[in-house]
Design brief:
Layout lengths: L10 H14 L10 H5 L8 H15 L6 H14 L4 H10 L3 H14 L5 H9 L10 E3 L4 H8 L12 E3 L2 H13 L10 E4 L2 E5 L4 H22 L6 H11 L6 H10 L15 E10 L2 E4 L1 E4 L4 E4 L7 H10 L4 E8 L9 E8 L3 E5 L3 H10 L21 E6 L5 E10 L4 E10 L7
Antiparallel strand pairs: 1-2, 3-4, 5-6, 5-14, 7-8, 7-9, 9-10, 11-12, 12-13, 13-14
Length: about 425
């Protein structure tokens, strides 16, 4: 392995060093053709702590907290515990990634760590425009009481129910992080909601285009304030560090760290073999005019799971789901006709439980094995969940379960009944011996 100081040597010194090493090793003349590689080589940071930090950042980048909450929350907690050592890596990720969920988590983490050297990176992120996100206060529960209580102390909503923590949209988390780290405020007119310290309490009702301009104006005010006050907050060496973290070298160690830790999200290769397809109906029971899911599915074991009806609060349901390997639950989406007098209709869907989901074309159901064998399938980051099917069946998804199993799922339809309805699905999984 190339030493970490190698890439910092002058090019001529690297060349001489490698000539000595190759000659001493009795290398053939062909070996010297790799010199251009070594002259331009940028060594990854092989420090174990940095690899561990980037592994957790990888989770925030790719895991959607709506569908794989627990490992996402565990990574947030671990970055907070690592503390100031994680700040340079987090600041770099603020510039590289543009997903709302990841940005919110990174900003909350910086606020929790409390390192003022993160301020320039937060201001620069505000100058770059912040992804809008979808909710200003999302109350989350992993089912791990200790983890939930730990994160609640850093969450946006201090008044969330016990064993729940809250995360704001990126612009809100960014605002609160800047205020917490500097003791300064530029007001709340650039947020989606007016914010008072710890919880969004009143909708601002600002049109979106105007809001973007307000955010850019706020970025200019924060930049001016920082330039006028930074020497009273940080020393010269700390300022130099902070500015460097806000302008990272544009290499990306996060993907490599994730691959080392977790392997590829989508398995490929000639050994890919799917087990037989399983078709099942997951039933829903109507209670007091509402629909509550009684049956879920453990894709790895290939069988439905009956969810105890006594589990009525989010914490106990999340805990039970984790302990019993639940990957998804039957759910319905209620859609009304255009006629307001017409009754609403239910349509089938699934709710993911720590299960990564990618929506794909229906035709992949027949070709998926060969597509993975030859590496011909391309997907982006996991989505927020299985989504709403409406009346369009089937709907097809790739999944990676909480036990790291991989498969393909189709939602085939909805079987309505006055007392017991069902969501019909079929799925097939790769054999664990073929996942590598």
């Amino acid at each position: 392995m190339v030493p970490t100081g190698f890439s910092r040597m002058p090019a001529w010194m690297r060349c001489v060093l490698m000539m000595i090493v190759f000659a001493a090793a009795g290398a053939s003349p062909r070996a010297f053709t790799v010199f251009p590689y070594f002259l331009n080589f940028q060594t990854p940071n092989i420090d174990e702590t940095s690899l561990n930090i980037d592994k957790h950042i990888y989770v925030l980048r790719h895991y959607v907290f709506m569908t794989r909450l627990r490992p996402w929350a565990e990574s947030v907690a671990e970055l907070i515990r690592i503390g100031e050592l994680a700040v340079p890596n987090i600041c770099g990720e603020l510039m590289r990634d543009n997903s709302a969920a990841s940005q919110s988590a990174l900003m909350m983490t910086l606020r929790a760590i409390g390192d003022k050297r993160a301020v320039p990176a937060l201001i620069r992120r505000l100058e770059m425009d912040v992804p809008p996100g979808t909710a200003d206060v999302g109350r989350l529960c992993t089912g791990d009481a200790e983890l939930d209580v730990y994160l609640k102390q850093f969450g946006l909503d201090k008044f969330a129910p016990e064993n729940m923590f809250a995360l704001g949209r990126p612009i809100t988390e960014l605002c609160l992080a800047l205020e917490s780290l500097t003791g300064h405020s530029e007001g709340y007119g650039y947020l989606y909601y007016k914010t008072h310290g710890a919880i969004a309490i009143e909708q601002a009702e600002i049109e979106f285009p105007d809001l973007i301009e307000r955010q850019r104006n706020a970025a200019r005010r924060w930049r001016a304030w920082w330039e006028a006050n930074k020497t009273s907050i940080l020393g010269p060496a700390q300022i130099a560090q902070a500015e460097a973290w806000a302008n990272p070298v544009w290499n990306d160690p996060v993907e490599d760290a994730g691959m080392v830790a977790f392997g590829p999200m989508i398995p490929t290769g000639p050994g890919i073999v799917f087990k037989r397809a399983i078709e099942v109906t997951l039933y829903l029971w109507r209670r007091a005019g509402d629909v509550w899911s009684d049956f879920g599915i453990d894709f790895d074991r290939g069988m439905p799971v009956s969810c105890p009806s006594r589990l009525t609060d989010p914490a106990s349901r999340a805990k039970w789901s984790t302990e019993n390997g639940l990957d998804a639950v039957a759910s319905t989406v209620r859609l009304a006709d255009n006629d307001p007098e017409a009754p609403a209709h239910d349509f089938a869907s699934l709710g993911g439980c720590d299960c990564l989901v990618w929506s794909i074309e229906n035709s992949y159901w027949e070709t998926i094995e060969n597509d993975l064998r030859f590496g011909e399938l391309r997907v982006g980051d996991p989505e927020d969940g299985f989504g709403d099917c409406g009346t369009q069946y089937p709907r097809t998804y790739l999944i990676r379960t909480r036990e790291n199993g991989f498969g393909i799922v189709q939602i085939l339809g909805y079987t309505p009944d006055q007392h017991k309805s069902g969501v019909r699905i079929r799925f097939k999984m790769i054999g664990t011996e073929n996942l590598g």
